[in-house]
Design brief:
Elements: H1 2-34, H2 46-82, H3 85-91, H4 96-137, E1 157-164, E2 170-178, E3 187-198, E4 204-217, E5 230-243, H5 266-292, H6 299-304, E6 307-312, E7 315-321, H7 323-328, H8 332-398, H9 405-429, H10 435-458, H11 466-490
Antiparallel strand pairs: 1-2, 2-3, 3-4, 4-5, 6-7
Length: about 500
């Protein structure tokens, strides 16, 4: 039996690692496609790009593991079924449960490792990835001077080049507008040729121009005159030396992002949720106190009014004014002032209610994000085991190995799982459903389906044999046809 178990494990490990690499590659390409504009054209070193890819792959590992488990289990057991190896094992008295046992143990270990990876490694990778992305976003694009187009990538200079050499070192028909004095296009330099070099640390630019002239407009001494004097300076060689701002990568401190939900492990999330919950409760009490407080009337009205107090849950005693007694003892002008003041106070309270509601809804949504992340780490880890009970019986039932049919079925099932998970998380985030209902909804659907498929595969059911369904509907159709004939015979002639 041990030899059989080792054979099953060897048959499973190969497809699992292959599908894991494929899943990571597909998810990575999808992620890079979204953020491609932020990476291209900024002159990033290969080490920075490699670092970005490593952090991204670590973040995508939680989605790649369940997909790889599903695809590998379908491929492994589909290949065993296609080669009649499952049939031979069952003929020898080995049940499907015993055949799946080593893969189940391996899947449990993988789920535990997935939870540890999600809880310990991903928070660190997330902080590093967000810090790196934030640094890259602030990095200015690499200076690229195109032919026939003005380039404004260099501070205080606008450069146009008529033609560039094949290697890009020489520039021809150069025109430069100098905006260092911030007076508009008053200084323009034209040269036959030139070279532009940027230092290795990308802090400075050296621009050498050859055989040209500089035209400068000067301010007249008498401002009432409409004519402006100008000056032209010819040169054989002229150099510009300027400081480049934002051309080098300045890394942000990772501590700025340590309080985000994905940057925390579960123990830190529990502490954060407790703190945010207390803060939200204080906010609600403060809002209630603000709305239930009525500003004191002026001294004359205060003496005329009957006053008592009433308790509020979790609030201090609040003074209550009997408005009717005040209005009866007041003149018409004073009653009008009181009514106008009440209307103004009501409008202010309505605005305060709307603003406080928006603040509380945003706070609750933020609190839910931390709770979703706490549940999601367990649900994602368990997904590896759930997909095993989906994929293994499916492979045994369809009896197709390779990457054809298993890949199609895996992608469709995973997309369905992802849609349900995303929808459930959105419901939990918007407080439409509780946290555990939204996050665990996909598991609640897929786990019973996996148990059902495993039971059917263990009993050699024809649940995926379409011919059996065709025969079933044929029998129903024939039974209805037979009843119609019997009814026709019973009708009187």
């Amino acid at each position: 039996m041990k030899r059989l178990h080792w054979y099953i494990i060897k048959s499973f490990i190969g497809p699992f690692f292959v599908t894991l690499v494929i899943s990571l590659f597909v998810l990575l390409m999808q992620f890079l496609w979204v953020y491609l504009d932020e990476l291209v054209g900024k002159g990033l070193d290969f080490s920075i790009i490699l670092e970005f890819i490593v952090y991204t792959m670590a973040m995508l590992m939680t989605n790649a593991l369940p997909l790889a488990m599903l695809l590998a289990s379908i491929m492994t057991f589909g290949d065993l079924g296609e080669n009649n190896e499952l049939l031979a094992m069952k003929a020898a008295g080995i049940s499907l449960y015993r055949i799946m046992k080593p893969v189940i143990v391996l899947s449990i270990l993988l789920s535990i490792g997935s939870f540890y990876f999600y809880n310990q490694v991903i928070p660190v990778s997330y902080k590093k990835l967000i810090a790196l992305m934030s640094s890259i976003r602030q990095l200015r694009p690499e200076i690229i001077v195109k032919e026939g187009v003005f380039s404004n990538d260099i501070d205080n200079f606008s450069i146009k080049v008529g033609k560039r050499s094949a290697n890009g070192d020489m520039l021809y028909d150069v025109m430069i507008y100098d905006h260092t004095e911030d007076k508009g296009n008053v200084t323009v330099t034209v040269a036959d040729s030139g070279t532009m070099k940027i230092t290795k640390d990308k802090k400075y630019m050296i621009l050498n121009l050859y055989s040209g002239q500089t035209h400068s407009e000067m301010q007249p001494q008498d401002r009432r005159k409409l004519t402006f004097p100008s000056r032209t300076d010819k040169f054989q060689k002229q150099s510009y030396f300027t400081v480049l701002q934002g051309m080098e990568l300045e890394r942000k401190d990772e501590s700025y992002f340590r309080n985000q939900n994905r940057a925390l492990n579960n123990s830190q999330i529990v502490y954060f949720v407790d703190s945010l919950g207390k803060q939200l409760e204080r906010q609600r009490i403060d809002n209630a106190l603000t709305l239930t407080y009525i500003g004191p009337l002026n001294a004359s009205l205060s003496k005329m009014a009957r006053k008592d107090t009433f308790p509020m849950p979790k609030l201090k005693l609040t003074q209550y004014t009997d408005v009717d007694s005040v209005l009866k003892k007041s003149s018409a002008s004073i009653r009008l002032n009181i009514i106008n003041g009440a209307l103004s106070s009501a409008r202010g309270n309505a605005r305060a209610v709307q603003q406080s509601e928006e603040i509380i809804v945003a706070s609750v949504r933020n609190l839910n994000r931390f709770g979703i992340e706490w549940h999601k780490k367990y649900a994602t880890a368990l997904a590896c085991l759930v997909f095993l009970f989906i994929g293994a019986p499916l492979g045994a039932l369809i009896r197709k190995g390779g990457l054809g049919m298993p890949l199609v079925i895996s992608v469709l099932l995973f997309i369905f799982y992802w849609i349900i998970s995303t929808t459930g998380e959105k419901f939990s985030r918007e407080s439409v459903a509780s946290l555990w209902e939204g996050v665990w909804f996909s598991t609640i659907i897929f786990l019973p389906a996996g148990i059902f498929l495993t039971y059917k595969a263990a009993n050699d059911s024809v649940v995926l044999n379409f011919n059996s369904y065709i025969e079933f509907f044929k029998k129903i159709f024939n039974s209805f046809k037979k009843k119609d004939k019997e009814n026709e015979q019973e009708l009187p002639k």
